[in-house]
Amino acid sequence: MCPQADSNTRNRIRELEQLLHQKEAELALLAEIAEIVASEEGLDAAFAIIAERARALLDAKTVTIPLLSADQTSYTYRAAAGLNAEELTGAELPIEVGLCGWVLRHHKPWWRGTLEDLDENERNYWEKKAGNIILVPLVGKRRFLGGIAAIDKLDDSNFTERDLDLLAMFSRQVGFAVENAMYLEELQAATERTEAYRRQLEQSNRQLLRTNEELEHLALHDPLTGLPNRSLVIDRVQQAILNARRNQEPMALLMLDLDHFKEVNDTLGHLVGDKLLIRVGERFQSSLREPDTLGRLGGDEFAIVLPQASQEDAQIVAEKLQDALRRPVDIDQNSFSVAASIGIAIYPEHGPDPSSLLRSADIAMYVAKRARNEFAIYQPEYDTYNPDHLSLLRDLREAIRRNDITAAFQPKLDLRTGNIVGMEALARWQHPEKGDIPPYEFIPILEQTGLIKPFTLQILEKAADYCAQCRAKKMEFSVAVNLSMHNLRDDRLPDQISEIISRHDIAPRQLILEITESAIMHDPEHSIGILERLNEMGLRLSVDDFGTGYSSLSYLKRLPVSQLKIDRSFVKTMARDKDDAMIVRSTIELAHNLGLDTVAEGVEDEETLEQLRAMHCDMAQGYLISRPLSADNFFHFMLSSPWAARSELPEPDSA
Ligand code: C2E
Ligand code: MG
Ligand code: MG
Whose CA is nearest to atom 8 of ligand 1? Predict the structure, then answer.
């Protein structure tokens, strides 16, 4: 073998070895890049390695990887290796500046030799700019990604065409992998963004739902007790009506109002009043069943919706609600006896829709309160607000104008002497068509319309006149007249009474004015002023219906009263009910300790009378002795009744 051939072969073998070496290196590089791109390290690490490998491949001082922005208006050096690498990485340039734009526009690598290809405009520009730099496009399967640029050779020689080929080949090999990785990265970022957005959306949704619920709750519940408010109650009534209609069965609406709540508020303050409402609400709630709705309509008014309930069921619930109030309610150091009046309305008899049912229940409640019953079931006759109401009001006005309302007189028996000592004047209205209308039906109408003032004067007039008639028959009685709370706010009342007394020439002591606790407590300061003037005039004052109101003993002490009338609801049951007997006994003792006389009203049997006598009650009034009588019948009673027969002719001062 000739030496020449030998050396040729050796060279060839070396070349082949180098090529093999290079191919192996390329393969290794590809494997490495594929691995990094797929690894957790992420694209930044992959680009850094690509840049470094390219730099080593070309013996370049610096390699950069500029990547195009999505809209292709700028590019960013995503990675760099070698000199100034750190400074370059992350820098962003507009597409018009630098080689990257040129490469993008021409879709071919940039090399010094490219200068020949430049057109006139470009040449001036790039000729000035072009240093020792080559740039090849970095292209994926689907798009142009950017490029890979090498700047300055380590030995300061120029880049050769072979360098350009090497870099271009290198770029082709990493292009697809990079594109995929970039897609993956974008996808991941987009997924993350979507996920974050979804989470945010979910959170705002939850928040919105919560706010909505809160708003709905606020709109539909009473803030004090947390119970459903009027709107929600009406809604529940509507639902119950729909169900009832579908199943052809009745439902019931109860309306409940606390007695004398206003006085608690006025004398002990709103805080105590509020607590009382909350506690009472809890008591009611605990005596109801799951499907029932307890709501607060406002003030001291509650409503109870009973789906699928007959009149009998409603009555049982009303009794349960009343039972719930039998124990006193303790608030702070005070103990309150709370009473309530309940009105019951049944669908469909008492109204076809929520508003008419509410109205019926309201009217029934009002009647219960007036009649001092624990509850009342609606009856059309109660309905003073129906079209008849207006005509009733007209008739009432007319009755007062014509002085048609009369007074009945109910005798009062002195238990100490056995004498009839006086009487109570009770208003009676005989309606021309409707017959007898009880006071608890027409007096509220008078109170609502201001007619109560002329009406009271008429009754006073009749009472004084009757007193004078009795005296003419040699019977000196006291006569009691009921005042309404509106009278206690009327500053002219004392003068008007004074005029009546002097005109009939009766002694002021013969006139007793009955006022309920609640009438006084309605506006205590003002009432006390007027009561004091009446007392100074020599009239006597009596607290009517004692025990039914919220009794403030401190006021009682300040009032110029001389008599307590124990409410008939205690008296009626005292013979059977130990508690009521206790209340009556304590009231008598309390009254005596305060220097007051006691009258028991509503005495219906001998046993009660005996008990009262044993308790040292001073006077008694009730059906046992006599029902309220017309003026003529009262004279007749005085002449013929065994009660009166026992009487000596009374002294004017003893009642
Ligand atoms: P009141 O002042 O407590 O009058 C006593 C009521 O009890 C009267 O009812 C009387 O008829 C009734 N009563 C008397 N004895 C018995 C009894 O043994 N058993 C029962 N169950 N009841 C008995 P009336 O006449 O229906 O009056 C009811 C209320 O109307 C009165 O209660 C009073 O608050 C009011 N009232 C009556 N007349 C007038 C008036 O002229 N002016 C004012 N402002 N109110 C009046
Ligand atoms: Mg009375
Ligand atoms: Mg009374």
Answer: 426
